[in-house]
Amino acid sequence: MDFRTVQDILEDVQAGRLSIAEALNRFQVLPFENLGFAHVDHHRALRQGFPEVVFAHGKTVPQLASILGALMNHSRHVLVTRLDPDKYEALHPNLPPGTYYPDSRVLTLGPDDITDVGRGLILVISAGTSDLPVAEEAALTARIMGNRVETVYDVGVAGLHRLLHYHDKLQEATVFVVVAGMEGALPSVVGGLVQRPVIAVPTSVGYGASFGGLAALLGMLNSCASGVAVVNIDNGFGAGYLAALINRRI
Description:
- It is a single chain.
- The protein is an alpha/beta fold and about 250 residues long.
- Helix content is about 40%, strand content about 15%.
- The chain has 2 domains: about 5-110, no CATH class; about 120-245, Rossmann fold (3-Layer(aba) Sandwich).
- The chain has helices at about 5-15, 20-25, 45-50, 60-70, 85-90, 130-145, 160-165, 165-170, 185-190, 215-220, 235-245; strands at about 35, 40, 55, 80, 100, 105-110, 120-125, 150, 175-180, 200, 230.
- The strands form 3 sheets. The protein has a 5-stranded parallel sheet. It has a 4-stranded mixed sheet with strand order 3-4-6-5, with helices on both faces.
- The model has no long low-confidence stretch (mean pLDDT about 90).
């Protein structure tokens, strides 16, 4: 349940289309809904501006079906992350309209008419093609939260002229999400070129000495460029969510 839904209910009561008892019944599960194995937070959209996001990893298909059913009863849009293809195939027949992105393992549910609540452009940049699953998770998260999002992929420091080709986009964007594995140098480069926040996302892409993304994480944490903040390894969702909050019109 979000601000728009609450406003619609109150307007229906005011216009006499809905009784007070019916309105109270709709508000009954506003704080949360107890499913036994989960307490679904229906109040989150009112507190934070977007409904509870479902992290699918470790959840069974029946658990996911119950959680998604509860959320879709109260939210126009729902985001699911880390949803493996086999679980999606099991859930798909009973899901409302939506789109599944197998490369990033993201599922978005709800209509396509997402209201733009952003101040400007969120630009998601990846160092390599191997970083795309994480970059796409960030882009899809920011987009379903009501932002204009564009992407520039495979422009890492091994061929920096590729990034400089997008000079106009670098000057236009309000927030950057920069995704890189290996040594994780790209966010520092972008941070040295722009005057906007840069959210750095280390990925677990790399050879043995990358230590599953730890080398990229430490490199980004030690960036000499000002204005670079770092999220956890492979956390495209966290970066996209943070970018959406920074970009949101107040």
